[in-house]
Design brief:
Catalyzes the reduction of the glycolytic intermediate dihydroxyacetone phosphate (DHAP) to sn-glycerol 3-phosphate (G3P), the key precursor for phospholipid synthesis. Sn-glycerol 3-phosphate binds at residues 110, 140, 195, 248, 258-260. This protein is α/β, with parallel strands linked by helices. Helices cover 50% and strands 12% of the residues. Helix 9 (212-232) packs antiparallel against helix 11 and helix 15 packs antiparallel against helix 16 (320-328). Bound molecules: 1,4-dihydronicotinamide adenine dinucleotide and 1,3-dihydroxyacetonephosphate (13P).
Protein backbone atom coordinates (compact mmCIF):
# COMPACT_ATOMS: atom_id res chain seq x y z
CA UNK A 1 0.00 0.00 0.00
CA UNK A 2 1.30 3.48 -0.77
CA UNK A 3 1.28 5.02 2.68
CA UNK A 4 0.91 8.53 1.31
CA UNK A 5 -2.55 7.67 0.08
CA UNK A 6 -3.61 5.72 3.18
CA UNK A 7 -6.71 6.91 4.98
CA UNK A 8 -7.13 6.89 8.74
CA UNK A 9 -10.39 7.25 10.66
CA UNK A 10 -10.02 8.29 14.31
CA UNK A 11 -12.84 7.62 16.79
CA UNK A 12 -12.98 9.94 18.66
CA UNK A 13 -11.66 13.48 18.77
CA UNK A 14 -10.69 13.48 22.45
CA UNK A 15 -7.22 14.29 23.66
CA UNK A 16 -5.28 11.17 22.65
CA UNK A 17 -7.33 10.56 19.50
CA UNK A 18 -6.52 14.07 18.34
CA UNK A 19 -2.82 13.66 19.10
CA UNK A 20 -2.63 10.35 17.19
CA UNK A 21 -4.61 11.93 14.34
CA UNK A 22 -1.93 14.61 14.17
CA UNK A 23 0.87 12.00 14.23
CA UNK A 24 -0.70 9.97 11.41
CA UNK A 25 -1.32 13.08 9.32
CA UNK A 26 2.29 14.18 9.89
CA UNK A 27 3.31 10.65 8.81
CA UNK A 28 1.51 11.18 5.50
CA UNK A 29 -1.91 9.54 5.84
CA UNK A 30 -5.09 11.54 5.36
CA UNK A 31 -7.02 11.59 8.62
CA UNK A 32 -10.71 11.97 9.32
CA UNK A 33 -11.69 12.45 12.96
CA UNK A 34 -15.07 11.33 14.24
CA UNK A 35 -16.49 13.71 16.84
CA UNK A 36 -19.77 13.34 18.70
CA UNK A 37 -20.29 17.09 18.92
CA UNK A 38 -20.94 19.26 15.83
CA UNK A 39 -18.96 22.16 17.25
CA UNK A 40 -15.79 20.05 17.58
CA UNK A 41 -16.10 18.69 14.00
CA UNK A 42 -16.96 22.13 12.59
CA UNK A 43 -14.03 23.79 14.36
CA UNK A 44 -11.57 21.17 13.06
CA UNK A 45 -12.82 21.69 9.50
CA UNK A 46 -13.01 25.47 9.67
CA UNK A 47 -10.01 26.38 11.85
CA UNK A 48 -7.87 23.17 11.86
CA UNK A 49 -8.01 23.19 15.64
CA UNK A 50 -9.70 20.93 18.18
CA UNK A 51 -11.23 23.72 20.20
CA UNK A 52 -12.32 21.43 23.03
CA UNK A 53 -8.92 19.90 23.79
CA UNK A 54 -6.02 21.72 22.11
CA UNK A 55 -7.25 25.13 20.98
CA UNK A 56 -3.64 26.38 20.73
CA UNK A 57 -2.36 23.78 18.22
CA UNK A 58 -2.99 23.97 14.50
CA UNK A 59 -3.57 20.52 13.00
CA UNK A 60 -2.17 19.52 9.60
CA UNK A 61 -4.69 20.48 6.90
CA UNK A 62 -5.00 16.81 5.91
CA UNK A 63 -6.99 16.31 9.15
CA UNK A 64 -10.74 16.74 8.66
CA UNK A 65 -13.70 15.83 10.87
CA UNK A 66 -17.25 14.54 10.72
CA UNK A 67 -19.97 13.46 13.13
CA UNK A 68 -21.10 10.73 10.71
CA UNK A 69 -19.49 7.31 11.40
CA UNK A 70 -20.16 6.01 7.86
CA UNK A 71 -18.41 9.00 6.29
CA UNK A 72 -15.45 8.62 8.63
CA UNK A 73 -15.04 4.90 7.89
CA UNK A 74 -15.57 5.05 4.13
CA UNK A 75 -12.39 3.65 2.53
CA UNK A 76 -10.43 3.71 5.81
CA UNK A 77 -7.17 1.71 5.83
CA UNK A 78 -6.84 2.26 9.59
CA UNK A 79 -9.48 2.73 12.27
CA UNK A 80 -7.92 4.27 15.38
CA UNK A 81 -10.07 3.74 18.47
CA UNK A 82 -9.63 6.12 21.40
CA UNK A 83 -12.62 6.37 23.70
CA UNK A 84 -13.00 5.39 27.36
CA UNK A 85 -12.50 1.60 27.70
CA UNK A 86 -15.81 1.18 29.54
CA UNK A 87 -17.67 2.83 26.59
CA UNK A 88 -15.92 0.79 23.91
CA UNK A 89 -18.44 -2.05 23.62
CA UNK A 90 -21.50 0.15 23.03
CA UNK A 91 -19.66 2.77 20.98
CA UNK A 92 -18.07 0.23 18.66
CA UNK A 93 -21.26 -1.79 18.20
CA UNK A 94 -22.83 1.25 16.55
CA UNK A 95 -19.84 1.87 14.26
CA UNK A 96 -18.96 -1.75 13.38
CA UNK A 97 -21.32 -2.10 10.38
CA UNK A 98 -19.33 0.63 8.59
CA UNK A 99 -15.90 -1.00 9.03
CA UNK A 100 -14.47 -2.22 5.70
CA UNK A 101 -13.12 -5.77 5.15
CA UNK A 102 -9.46 -4.69 5.01
CA UNK A 103 -9.42 -1.98 7.63
CA UNK A 104 -6.80 -2.51 10.35
CA UNK A 105 -8.02 -1.42 13.78
CA UNK A 106 -5.57 0.34 16.09
CA UNK A 107 -6.55 0.46 19.75
CA UNK A 108 -5.16 3.28 21.89
CA UNK A 109 -7.15 2.38 24.98
CA UNK A 110 -5.55 1.68 28.34
CA UNK A 111 -8.32 0.03 30.32
CA UNK A 112 -9.88 -3.34 31.20
CA UNK A 113 -13.62 -3.85 30.81
CA UNK A 114 -15.44 -4.26 34.12
CA UNK A 115 -17.47 -7.47 34.28
CA UNK A 116 -15.85 -9.30 31.38
CA UNK A 117 -12.21 -8.59 32.37
CA UNK A 118 -11.45 -8.21 28.67
CA UNK A 119 -8.64 -6.11 27.26
CA UNK A 120 -9.67 -3.52 24.66
CA UNK A 121 -8.41 -5.61 21.71
CA UNK A 122 -10.51 -8.55 22.94
CA UNK A 123 -13.62 -6.37 23.20
CA UNK A 124 -12.90 -5.22 19.63
CA UNK A 125 -12.63 -8.74 18.18
CA UNK A 126 -15.70 -9.85 20.14
CA UNK A 127 -17.90 -6.92 19.07
CA UNK A 128 -16.80 -6.74 15.42
CA UNK A 129 -16.03 -10.39 14.67
CA UNK A 130 -12.77 -9.15 13.11
CA UNK A 131 -9.78 -11.48 13.57
CA UNK A 132 -7.00 -10.59 16.02
CA UNK A 133 -4.58 -10.34 13.08
CA UNK A 134 -6.35 -7.13 12.04
CA UNK A 135 -6.30 -5.55 15.50
CA UNK A 136 -3.19 -3.67 16.66
CA UNK A 137 -2.44 -1.87 19.91
CA UNK A 138 -0.42 1.35 20.18
CA UNK A 139 0.90 1.96 23.69
CA UNK A 140 3.79 3.74 25.39
CA UNK A 141 4.86 6.82 27.35
CA UNK A 142 2.73 9.23 25.35
CA UNK A 143 1.24 12.12 27.28
CA UNK A 144 -0.96 13.72 24.62
CA UNK A 145 -0.05 17.32 25.46
CA UNK A 146 3.67 16.70 24.83
CA UNK A 147 2.94 14.96 21.52
CA UNK A 148 0.78 17.88 20.39
CA UNK A 149 3.77 20.12 21.08
CA UNK A 150 5.90 17.95 18.79
CA UNK A 151 8.15 16.71 21.58
CA UNK A 152 10.02 13.41 20.96
CA UNK A 153 8.32 10.19 22.03
CA UNK A 154 8.29 6.47 21.26
CA UNK A 155 5.72 3.70 21.58
CA UNK A 156 5.07 0.05 20.83
CA UNK A 157 2.74 -1.15 18.07
CA UNK A 158 1.68 -4.71 18.89
CA UNK A 159 -0.23 -7.07 16.62
CA UNK A 160 -0.11 -10.86 16.19
CA UNK A 161 0.34 -10.21 12.45
CA UNK A 162 3.78 -8.65 12.03
CA UNK A 163 2.90 -7.28 8.61
CA UNK A 164 -0.07 -5.38 10.05
CA UNK A 165 2.16 -4.08 12.86
CA UNK A 166 4.65 -2.83 10.27
CA UNK A 167 1.89 -1.10 8.30
CA UNK A 168 0.72 0.70 11.42
CA UNK A 169 4.34 1.50 12.33
CA UNK A 170 4.90 3.16 8.94
CA UNK A 171 1.64 5.05 9.23
CA UNK A 172 2.61 6.68 12.53
CA UNK A 173 6.37 7.17 12.14
CA UNK A 174 7.33 10.85 12.17
CA UNK A 175 10.48 12.82 13.06
CA UNK A 176 9.09 13.25 16.60
CA UNK A 177 7.30 9.88 17.07
CA UNK A 178 9.19 6.58 16.92
CA UNK A 179 7.05 3.41 16.96
CA UNK A 180 8.57 -0.05 17.56
CA UNK A 181 6.77 -3.26 16.63
CA UNK A 182 5.88 -6.25 18.81
CA UNK A 183 3.61 -9.27 18.68
CA UNK A 184 2.87 -9.14 22.44
CA UNK A 185 -0.58 -7.57 22.49
CA UNK A 186 -1.37 -8.92 25.96
CA UNK A 187 1.79 -7.44 27.50
CA UNK A 188 1.27 -4.04 25.88
CA UNK A 189 -2.36 -3.78 26.93
CA UNK A 190 -1.77 -4.91 30.52
CA UNK A 191 1.22 -2.58 30.84
CA UNK A 192 -0.97 0.34 29.73
CA UNK A 193 -3.97 -0.54 31.90
CA UNK A 194 -2.16 -1.38 35.15
CA UNK A 195 0.16 1.64 35.02
CA UNK A 196 -2.92 3.87 35.42
CA UNK A 197 -3.69 2.19 38.75
CA UNK A 198 -0.06 2.51 39.87
CA UNK A 199 -0.14 6.20 38.84
CA UNK A 200 -3.18 6.64 41.09
CA UNK A 201 -1.12 5.13 43.94
CA UNK A 202 1.85 7.41 43.24
CA UNK A 203 -0.45 10.44 43.07
CA UNK A 204 -2.02 9.45 46.39
CA UNK A 205 1.41 9.09 48.01
CA UNK A 206 2.57 12.41 46.60
CA UNK A 207 -0.65 14.11 47.71
CA UNK A 208 -0.12 12.73 51.22
CA UNK A 209 3.30 14.41 51.24
CA UNK A 210 5.42 11.31 50.71
CA UNK A 211 8.76 11.82 48.96
CA UNK A 212 10.49 10.32 45.97
CA UNK A 213 11.65 7.21 47.85
CA UNK A 214 8.05 6.21 48.44
CA UNK A 215 7.07 7.09 44.89
CA UNK A 216 9.96 5.04 43.46
CA UNK A 217 8.97 2.14 45.72
CA UNK A 218 5.44 2.22 44.30
CA UNK A 219 6.69 2.46 40.70
CA UNK A 220 9.12 -0.44 41.16
CA UNK A 221 6.82 -2.73 43.11
CA UNK A 222 4.00 -1.62 40.78
CA UNK A 223 6.03 -2.88 37.84
CA UNK A 224 6.63 -6.14 39.73
CA UNK A 225 2.91 -6.76 40.20
CA UNK A 226 2.12 -5.68 36.63
CA UNK A 227 4.70 -8.15 35.31
CA UNK A 228 3.34 -10.93 37.54
CA UNK A 229 -0.17 -10.50 36.17
CA UNK A 230 0.89 -9.99 32.56
CA UNK A 231 3.16 -13.05 32.46
CA UNK A 232 0.48 -15.17 34.17
CA UNK A 233 -1.78 -14.11 31.28
CA UNK A 234 0.77 -15.09 28.63
CA UNK A 235 2.76 -11.88 28.11
CA UNK A 236 6.52 -11.83 27.56
CA UNK A 237 8.29 -10.29 30.58
CA UNK A 238 10.50 -8.13 28.30
CA UNK A 239 7.41 -6.26 27.12
CA UNK A 240 6.83 -5.00 30.64
CA UNK A 241 10.41 -3.69 30.75
CA UNK A 242 9.75 -1.87 27.46
CA UNK A 243 7.96 1.27 26.34
CA UNK A 244 4.44 -0.03 27.00
CA UNK A 245 5.48 -1.20 30.49
CA UNK A 246 8.24 0.58 32.39
CA UNK A 247 8.29 3.48 29.90
CA UNK A 248 4.64 4.36 30.29
CA UNK A 249 4.73 3.71 34.02
CA UNK A 250 7.56 6.18 34.55
CA UNK A 251 6.04 8.91 32.35
CA UNK A 252 2.58 8.61 33.88
CA UNK A 253 3.73 8.32 37.50
CA UNK A 254 6.11 11.29 37.13
CA UNK A 255 4.06 13.78 35.18
CA UNK A 256 1.55 16.30 36.50
CA UNK A 257 0.00 16.03 33.00
CA UNK A 258 -1.27 12.54 33.89
CA UNK A 259 -4.98 12.50 34.73
CA UNK A 260 -4.55 9.32 36.79
CA UNK A 261 -1.67 10.73 38.84
CA UNK A 262 -3.57 13.97 39.31
CA UNK A 263 -6.72 12.12 40.41
CA UNK A 264 -4.59 10.25 42.96
CA UNK A 265 -3.11 13.52 44.20
CA UNK A 266 -6.62 14.82 44.82
CA UNK A 267 -7.37 11.72 46.90
CA UNK A 268 -4.07 12.13 48.75
CA UNK A 269 -5.08 15.68 49.60
CA UNK A 270 -8.22 14.29 51.22
CA UNK A 271 -10.84 14.77 48.49
CA UNK A 272 -13.50 12.06 48.27
CA UNK A 273 -13.76 9.96 45.12
CA UNK A 274 -16.85 11.99 44.12
CA UNK A 275 -14.98 15.27 44.65
CA UNK A 276 -11.94 14.05 42.70
CA UNK A 277 -14.23 12.88 39.88
CA UNK A 278 -15.94 16.26 39.79
CA UNK A 279 -12.52 17.93 39.53
CA UNK A 280 -11.56 15.75 36.52
CA UNK A 281 -12.84 16.54 33.02
CA UNK A 282 -11.18 13.79 31.03
CA UNK A 283 -11.06 10.00 31.00
CA UNK A 284 -9.23 8.56 34.02
CA UNK A 285 -9.09 4.88 33.16
CA UNK A 286 -7.46 3.59 36.37
CA UNK A 287 -10.45 4.60 38.49
CA UNK A 288 -12.68 2.11 36.66
CA UNK A 289 -10.07 -0.47 35.68
CA UNK A 290 -8.69 -1.05 39.20
CA UNK A 291 -11.48 -3.44 40.14
CA UNK A 292 -11.38 -5.22 36.76
CA UNK A 293 -7.61 -5.72 37.12
CA UNK A 294 -8.06 -6.99 40.67
CA UNK A 295 -10.61 -9.52 39.40
CA UNK A 296 -8.09 -10.70 36.79
CA UNK A 297 -5.46 -11.01 39.52
CA UNK A 298 -7.85 -13.19 41.52
CA UNK A 299 -8.69 -15.34 38.50
CA UNK A 300 -4.98 -15.89 37.78
CA UNK A 301 -4.01 -16.30 41.44
CA UNK A 302 -1.60 -13.36 41.35
CA UNK A 303 -0.88 -11.02 44.27
CA UNK A 304 -1.33 -7.33 43.43
CA UNK A 305 -1.14 -5.50 46.77
CA UNK A 306 -0.91 -1.96 45.34
CA UNK A 307 -3.84 -2.48 42.99
CA UNK A 308 -5.80 -4.01 45.86
CA UNK A 309 -5.24 -1.08 48.19
CA UNK A 310 -6.01 1.47 45.45
CA UNK A 311 -9.25 -0.39 44.73
CA UNK A 312 -10.11 -0.34 48.47
CA UNK A 313 -9.45 3.41 48.58
CA UNK A 314 -11.58 4.00 45.47
CA UNK A 315 -14.41 2.09 47.14
CA UNK A 316 -13.75 4.07 50.33
CA UNK A 317 -13.23 0.88 52.34
CA UNK A 318 -10.03 2.19 53.96
CA UNK A 319 -8.61 5.56 54.96
CA UNK A 320 -5.40 6.98 53.50
CA UNK A 321 -3.44 6.15 56.65
CA UNK A 322 -4.80 2.61 56.77
CA UNK A 323 -3.84 2.15 53.11
CA UNK A 324 -0.27 3.35 53.68
CA UNK A 325 0.29 1.17 56.73
CA UNK A 326 -1.34 -1.86 55.09
CA UNK A 327 1.28 -1.72 52.32
CA UNK A 328 4.21 -1.11 54.68
CA UNK A 329 3.18 -3.81 57.15
CA UNK A 330 2.92 -6.67 54.70
CA UNK A 331 5.03 -9.65 55.77
CA UNK A 332 8.70 -9.28 54.77
CA UNK A 333 9.65 -11.36 51.72
CA UNK A 334 12.39 -11.75 49.09
CA UNK A 335 12.35 -9.11 46.35
CA UNK A 336 11.60 -11.68 43.66
N1 LIG B 1 -4.55 11.50 26.95
C1 LIG B 1 -3.43 10.81 26.90
O1 LIG B 1 -2.35 11.39 27.10
C2 LIG B 1 -3.45 9.35 26.58
C3 LIG B 1 -4.61 8.60 26.66
N2 LIG B 1 -4.60 7.26 26.37
C4 LIG B 1 -5.80 6.44 26.42
O2 LIG B 1 -6.68 6.86 25.38
C5 LIG B 1 -8.03 6.58 25.74
C6 LIG B 1 -8.86 7.84 25.52
O3 LIG B 1 -8.38 8.82 26.41
P1 LIG B 1 -8.38 10.36 26.09
O4 LIG B 1 -8.42 10.66 24.65
O5 LIG B 1 -7.26 10.92 26.83
O6 LIG B 1 -9.76 10.78 26.78
P2 LIG B 1 -10.61 12.10 26.58
O7 LIG B 1 -11.50 12.17 27.75
O8 LIG B 1 -9.73 13.25 26.27
O9 LIG B 1 -11.44 11.80 25.26
C7 LIG B 1 -12.37 10.72 25.18
C8 LIG B 1 -13.10 10.80 23.85
O10 LIG B 1 -14.05 9.73 23.83
C9 LIG B 1 -15.34 10.25 23.51
N3 LIG B 1 -16.33 9.46 24.22
C10 LIG B 1 -16.57 9.47 25.55
N4 LIG B 1 -17.55 8.59 25.84
C11 LIG B 1 -17.93 8.04 24.67
C12 LIG B 1 -18.90 7.10 24.32
N5 LIG B 1 -19.70 6.55 25.22
N6 LIG B 1 -19.02 6.78 23.03
C13 LIG B 1 -18.25 7.35 22.13
N7 LIG B 1 -17.31 8.26 22.37
C14 LIG B 1 -17.15 8.60 23.64
C15 LIG B 1 -15.31 11.69 23.98
O11 LIG B 1 -16.26 12.45 23.26
C16 LIG B 1 -13.89 12.08 23.62
O12 LIG B 1 -13.80 12.41 22.25
C17 LIG B 1 -8.00 6.11 27.20
O13 LIG B 1 -8.10 4.71 27.22
C18 LIG B 1 -6.62 6.56 27.69
O14 LIG B 1 -6.11 5.71 28.71
C19 LIG B 1 -3.45 6.65 25.98
C20 LIG B 1 -2.28 7.35 25.86
C21 LIG B 1 -2.18 8.75 26.16
O1 LIG C 1 -1.41 7.06 29.06
C1 LIG C 1 -0.95 8.15 29.25
C2 LIG C 1 0.46 8.48 28.95
O2 LIG C 1 1.10 7.45 28.25
C3 LIG C 1 -1.80 9.23 29.83
O3 LIG C 1 -1.97 9.02 31.18
P1 LIG C 1 -3.28 9.61 31.89
O4 LIG C 1 -4.46 8.90 31.28
O5 LIG C 1 -3.08 9.33 33.34
O6 LIG C 1 -3.30 11.09 31.59
Amino acid sequence: MNQHHARTAVFSAGSWGTAVGKIMADAGTSVIMHARRDEIADAINATHRNAGYFPDVELPHTVTATTDPATALDGADFLVLSIPAQSLRTGLAAWAPHIGPDTVIVSLMKGIEIGSGLRASQVITEVTGIGAERVAVLSGPNLAREIMDGQPAAATVACPDEDAAHRVQRACHTPYFRPYTSTDVTGCELGGAVKNVIALAVGIASGMGMGHNAQAMLITRGLAETTRLATAMGAHPATLAGLAGLGDLVATCSSPLSRNRTFGTHLGHGLTVAEATAATRQTTEGVKSAEAILALAGAHDVEMPITEIVSDLLHEKVTLDQAASALMQRPPKPER
